[in-house]
Amino acid sequence: MEIINNIFDWKAPAKTILTLGTFDGVHVGHQKIIKKLLKQQEKTPAPTVVLTFFPHPRMVLQQDQTLKLLNTIEERIELLQNLGIDCLVVHPFDYEFSRLTAEEFVEKVLVQHANIQNIIIGYDHRFGRNRTANITDLEQFGKQFGFDVTQISAKEIDEISVSSTKIRNALIEGDIATANTYLGYHYFLTGSVQKGKQLGRSIGFPTANLQLTADYKLVPKNGVYIVQSTLHGKTVYGMMNIGNNPTVDGTQQHLEVHFFDWNNDLYQQTIRVELLHKTREEIKFDSVVNLKKQLELDQQEILQWLKEQKK
């Protein structure tokens, strides 16, 4: 897959089939759109192009610094690459770009640079300055500039009415099962392993303290989760606590993973932790002794859950 970092620095050498969007999460709805793109390629052979944007438009236009995303841009690129497209354009979204009129966007971006012969887009898609243009306008532009518009119908949109917002809300509530169903894969956190206070090690539950690679990545609700990671080529299961360590009067959120059957050093390594299931809320215990007892119960419960999943 070819990756382009600015649409204006590139011109497609041949006619293309394109779809566009933010694609945060690359969830099952997005995956259906990409499959439709690839299906169109079978009918009219041409390179497939996905045009996406970063930062998220809400971060720029609404100055929404509280918005948390389902993927870092690196994760989004990887997920889209896995779907088999030919070219991904990650265009930097800024205020100047947002001021392009609908006609300027179509002519300068889609025609002059992306060189489209076909665009696949939802029936309710709006574009151009202040999002004033719609699918009917796009079809008129298609006649003017010589490209086809393939609509994703209202029925299809309803069938894939999984939205990034719904997934974010599920994660904020700690509903990993719903989030994973909508995503079509396990929600994951990527970060480097840093040294912590080593409380876990002192009570027989050493943890990898995860520092996320991007501060805009959404962290699910505090609690204890069953997780898995691929470490040195091996699938390793464990339990992750997301929380503030209230038993020892912690005040900052930490992501701590205790892996089962793993003794190797992970410090300074970047790992991906996939969340499989939430087991309980975070609890403040009267003592570290009681915390250790609960961790032992958690591990037993998680090992039983994993055993049942493999049946």
What can you see in these coordinates?
By secondary structure, this protein is of the alpha/beta class. The protein has 11 helices and 12 strands. It has helices spanning 28-43, 57-61, 73-81, 95-98, 102-113, 135-145, 154-159, 164-172, 176-183, 199-202, 288-309; strands at residues 2-4, 16-20, 48-54, 87-92, 116-122, 148-152, 188-194, 208-212, 223-231, 234-243, 254-259, 270-280. A 6-stranded parallel sheet has the order 1-4-3-2-5-6, with helices on both faces. Strands 7-8-11-10-9-12 form a 6-stranded antiparallel β-barrel. Helix 8 packs antiparallel against helix 9 (176-183). The longest helix is centred in the last third of the chain and has 22 residues, at 288-309.
Helix percentage = 25-40%
Q: Beta-sheet strand percentage? A: 25-35%
Count of helix runs:
11
List how many beta strands DSSP finds.
Answer: 12
Global mean pLDDT? 92
Instruction: Tell the overall outline.
Output: elongated
Q: Trace the largest sheet across and list its strands.
A: 1-4-3-2-5-6
Give the structural class: alpha/beta
Taking the sheet with the most strands, its summary is: 6 strands, parallel
| Gap from first CA to last CA | 38 Å
**Assembly form of the protein:** single chain
Whole-angstrom Rg: 23 Å
SSE sequence, one letter per element: EEHEHHEHHEHEHHHEHEEEEEH
State the low-pLDDT regions, or none.
none
